[in-house]
Amino acid sequence: MVRWLSAKLGPTVTSRTIARNLLRLLTSCYVGPHRHQFVPSGNESFPLNRNIYQKRLVLGDQLSKAVLDCLMHVAHLYGEPVLTYQYLPYISYLVSPSSGGRLNSRKEAALLAAVSVMQRIIVYLSDTTLMDILPKINQEVLLPVLGFLTSPITSFPSGSQARIALCVKSCNLIALICLRIGTEMVQQHLNETLQMFFSPFSLLQQAHDQGLNSEILSCSEPLLVELRCLDGTVLTVDLSVLEELEKVYNPEMAYATYIPFSFLIGDVAMRRIVPNHELLWKMTTAYQESMTPNTLQLSNHDPGFSSPLSSTPYTTHEAENQSGTFGSVLVGNRIQVPDDIQPDRSSSTALIAGADIFPPGYDDNTLKQDLPRSAHMLCGNWLAYWQYEIGVSQREAHFHFHQIKLQSFVGHSGSIKSVMPLNGEDFFLSGSKDKTVRLWPLYNYGDGMREIEARFTYTEHRKSVFYVGQLEAVQNIVSCDGAVHVWDQFTGKTLSTYEPADSKTPITAVATMPSPYCSVTFGSADSVLRFIDHRKPGLQHEFKLASNMNAGLIRYLTVSPSGRSVVAGYSSGFIVLLDTRTGLILRGWPAHEGDILHMKAAEGNIVVSSSSDHSLTVWKELEQKPVHQYKSVSDPIHAFDLYGHEIVTGTVANKIGIYSLLDPSTRPNSTTKLSSENFRGTLTSLAVLPTKRLLLLGAENGIIRLLA
């Protein structure tokens, strides 16, 4: 369901609603000490002796897998910008230092979630993008995570197990980045990161040398003491936190991290980057001896055997052109070792540590995968619009118009008379002077310059089509050219037609009833309002409006959202309100001094009308005076639509205006002139896509534009 919605809703709605909430859900997958336990594997005797970049799963990873899969599916649909512009900033937010420097269970889970999703992101980043944002990843993700992990005064609510899980995940992430970028880039960008990761080993050694007691005290308050480091600096440490650190940064962790990192980036580079490499090497060899007691016996009987206590981890040769993914040693997603440059196999440590770097059946795709090229991938104007939208709060109630052209719909040969989005906003209908109704897709394609063709064309009309609408209850389309046509939106088959009995009284206005009603109402030149149901023969109802006055022709009809009233606007500026339940005229009043050009009904018994007298007026159905009245200085407003509590208007001068529906003080009115680059021709029709916050604009040249 989530994947289907991600494709249906488009990039902006998906990112604002689905992806944003999936990212929030990730943290919940790691809340609780039981979710920090490692998933049992086949090698429980040596739990850390495994591929350094291979993920060691915790129970929380099993819960988060479905969430991460959905997040990556969104990235597959809309491209790499989703990873870099939405996911990465949220990860930075998750790992940002907390107020007071303390961790709660939620922040603890957020750190694990951030590292987990970062591991997935790194795999899908291209080489160019990874190098471009590597400083940002290092400063905003890696270093803050290591700040919590290595802090001697910040305890984890779930104890040492959560810290161990975070340490293993962080090690996997750093190793994955090292494999992607190569030795040269590691030395250039990750010096501080590696130094911070290995620094607790020295801290614990110095605490041990100074005889600090790291046992957890019975008192609940932390016991802070000062620790004098070898470089003369003084650190404040919490003894209970030191006890946590000792359980994490032990000889086993030194063996599981130092040897593989040395193998990845070279022993010479490792010694240059990590100041405490001698201590790490001693801890590594001590751990190896404790796990392989026969090593010393073998060295006594075999003169040619080199003891790990007297040898370096392995012999490495630094090549000038060694540069990971971007050089000759690490090619693509694999490490390619030339025949004349091999590790010293006489060292047992090198043999054991090196064997875990690429286990049998290793898949290159675990290091790097290319995102598939999707037709909906964000680029150009779509990317610019999407970048703005993901930064907008979900509570933002205002419509913002930026004149970003996203799509052009070409196919009509006559002026566009009506545009109407269908439910779901993935398709829309257009009626034109060329006697056709066309169905268009609203999915994002290309960079904003692409011209889209219609999916279907309805050609049964004989005159200019001035109205298109949808019967939501039965999912049928209603269109009118003087005769009302009801047809199936999926097959295009005509279901029924209604033509006026007298050609001297043509149909001049049409409206569809909201769900659950299935009726169509239309007004004719004789000032009669009629109702039909295409499933039944003949007329349902017939009401005479404005019988005692010269109101003129019915220019426009609109139905209240509840379906309880119909509002008719006349060429004289007169408006009549009809109760659909009783057929009684509730009110009639002279609303304008010119023709009614457009009308809309809104919740709360609100009616909005525009006229050729340049006025835009907001009415309460049964109140005598208007709620608000706006005056267009240059041109009358001939098309408008509603967005929440705002009115989005258009004029023949190609000006888009935004007005407040209820309270003008909440936002000043604004007017934007459409540029010829984004919209050519004269604006004839307008519709708002409220969920996607987009505008459909029809022109007299037959072209429809989608603008943000």
UniProtKB/TrEMBL annotation:
Extract one GO cellular component term from the record: autophagosome membrane
Name of this chain's protein: WD repeat-containing protein 81
> What are the subcellular locations of this protein?
Cytoplasm, Cytosol; Cytoplasmic vesicle, Autophagosome membrane; Early endosome membrane; Late endosome membrane
User: Entry's Pfam families?
Assistant: WD40 (PF00400)
Q: Which UniProt keywords apply?
A: Cytoplasm, Cytoplasmic vesicle, Endosome, Lysosome, Membrane, Mitochondrion, Repeat, Transit peptide, WD repeat
Q: Which family does it belong to?
A: Belongs to the WD repeat WDR81 family.
Q: Which PANTHER family match?
A: WD REPEAT-CONTAINING PROTEIN 81
What membrane topology was assigned to this protein in its record?
A: Peripheral membrane protein
The organism of origin for this protein: Geotrypetes seraphini
The answer to whether keyword Cytoplasm applies is yes
